[in-house]
Write a structure and sequence with these properties.
Elements lengths: L1 H25 L8 E22 L5 E22 L3 E22 L5 E23 L12 E20 L2 E25 L5 E17 L7 E18 L1
Antiparallel strand pairs: 1-2, 1-8, 2-3, 3-4, 4-5, 5-6, 6-7, 7-8
Length: 243
């Protein structure tokens, strides 16, 4: 009886060990983003921005349009949660810096019409981004060559602070000032990740961001109303490390 019990225990232990080995091979958590989500990325972005201010009054209606384009060095941090290696949700913060070209056109069409323009290169731009987003991993077959493919979408606010030489119509002054381009944005992203450990992956992604907003003020004490319109388009390439 003792020999039979010993034999059964030995068989059971071998079966348990084999089961553990098989489960580790097929463990759905192996090479997966689950629970805590963290991603840091760096790359480049090309952005094109515009801002138009219409000041309307019976005496002196003015329309001014600022345009700016630049190539930015851009970094972004994401923090959130992953669900079963299928999807991730996160909050995001981004910071960018670069130099570009600034252009301003101003036109007055009232009783004393006047026009002016200004162009300048080498203008610095500081970008801040705040938002929330999500990613979706449609390919769950780990043997597939496109395992790690993901699609993403995010939304929030971008602020670009651009510095330029002060001017008014055709008059240029010996000092620099700055203006802000503010856009509510929506960003679309596609990328591919490659696993470098059980929980960490290295990836590359392409993204496109569209932004815009409008706001109105007035009338004020001289019956002037003002409408300010912002638009923005950005194309980016990022490499990232993700948990």
């Amino acid at each position: 009886m003792k020999k039979l019990i010993s034999a059964m225990l030995l068989i059971a232990s071998c079966a348990f060990a084999q089961s553990n080995a098989n489960s580790s091979d097929s463990d759905v958590r192996y090479h997966a983003h689950r629970g805590f989500y963290f991603s840091v990325g760096t790359g480049f972005a090309y952005t094109s921005l515009s801002k138009t201010i219409n000041s309307k009054s019976d005496y002196d209606p003015v329309e001014e349009t600022d345009r700016f384009s630049s190539l930015l060095s851009y970094d972004e941090f994401r923090l959130g949660a992953s669900i079963a290696n299928v999807a991730s949700i996160y909050a995001t913060f981004g910071f960018g810096f670069g130099y570009g070209s600034y252009e301003d056109e101003i036109k007055r069409t009232g009783d004393d019409p006047k026009e002016g323009s200004f162009e300048e290169d080498g203008n610095p731009d500081i970008r801040l981004l705040f938002g929330v987003g999500g990613e979706f991993y449609p390919i769950q077959n780990k043997e597939s060559s496109i395992y790690g493919l993901f699609f993403g979408i995010s939304a929030g606010l971008t602020l670009d602070f651009v510095t330029y030489t002060d001017h008014y119509y055709d008059d240029v002054y010996d000092e620099t000032i700055s203006t802000a381009f503010a856009n509510l944005y929506c960003r679309f992203e596609i990328g591919k990740e490659f696993w470098i450990s059980r929980r960490w992956s290295f990836g590359v992604a392409l993204n496109y961001t569209i932004g815009g907003q409008e706001e109105e003020s007035g009338p004020n004490y001289i019956d002037e109303q003002e409408r300010e319109s912002h638009t923005g388009h950005t194309f980016g390439l990022m490499i990232r490390l993700t948990h």
